[in-house]
Amino acid sequence: MTRPRALITGAGSGLGRALAHRYARAGHDIAVVDLDRARAEAVVAELAAHGGAHFALVADVGDDAAVESLRDSVRAHWDCFDLLFNNAGVATAGSVADSSLDDWRWVTNIDLLGVVRGMKAFAPMFQQQRRGHVLSTASFAGLAGAPNIASYGVAKAGVVALSEALRAEMEPFGVRVSVICPSFFKTNLMDSARCADAKFSGVATRLMERARESADDIAAYVFRAQQRGRFLIIPTAQERMHWRLKRWFPEFYFRRLMAFARAMQLR
């Protein structure tokens, strides 16, 4: 019997790497995609401990031609596959007034249009095979409406809306779609972040350091939610509560959000 297959972008580190390990342990063959070949190959070497046939590919999701080349490379290895994780992403921080347009273009091109490119490249394959699951990593920032991370939050909110649209388009083909909205967890996301104001970077770094969840914890929750076919995947209980508050009591949520933002700035 053919083993299930998963393609994961941004799999050379952080959540992508954790997802690669979780799904390899569950018996999947993994296409490890990363901007850095050495990181991708290192993860493939790690996955050997789980058995299976894994391979590394290099792609910049911010580049049209690179994603088209990725599609062709995947087809050379696999005639079909089961799971697509549009996971690669970057971070920005800063207010609307202070963030540069270059930062807006950078984060939107990678975090939102990178997902568009991945969906566009592989949607026809999923439609043809009439099965599979497309999962895209957004962020709770895409739901929260939080201050001082507007460019990042807007890009991630776009991923949520895009996933909703793709879900409706793929339903007739029997293909599932999910969007992953983690909050802060221990990861290296800030290593490549662009921040208009250093204090916002410091707040994000502290929140990551204080987080109880690791990338492995988030990947484990995503695995369980994906197995159940859940669309909106919010891996942490506190953020699931905040999402319900925002939907049901939006003004109360906003007051709590602003109190939290003021406390973080004071610290």
Protein described:
This protein has 267 residues and is α/β, with parallel strands linked by helices. It has one domain (5-266): 3-Layer(aba) Sandwich (Rossmann fold). It has 10 helices and 9 strands. It has helices spanning 14-25, 37-47, 64-77, 101-129, 141-144, 150-170, 198-210, 215-228, 237-248, 250-266, and strands at residues 5-9, 29-34, 55-58, 83-86, 92-93, 133-137, 176-180, 194-195, 232-233. The strands form 2 sheets. Strands 3-2-1-4-6-7-9 form a 7-stranded parallel β-sheet, with helices on both faces. Strands 5-8 form a two-stranded parallel ribbon. α9 (237-248) packs across α10 (250-266). The N and C termini lie far apart (56 Å).
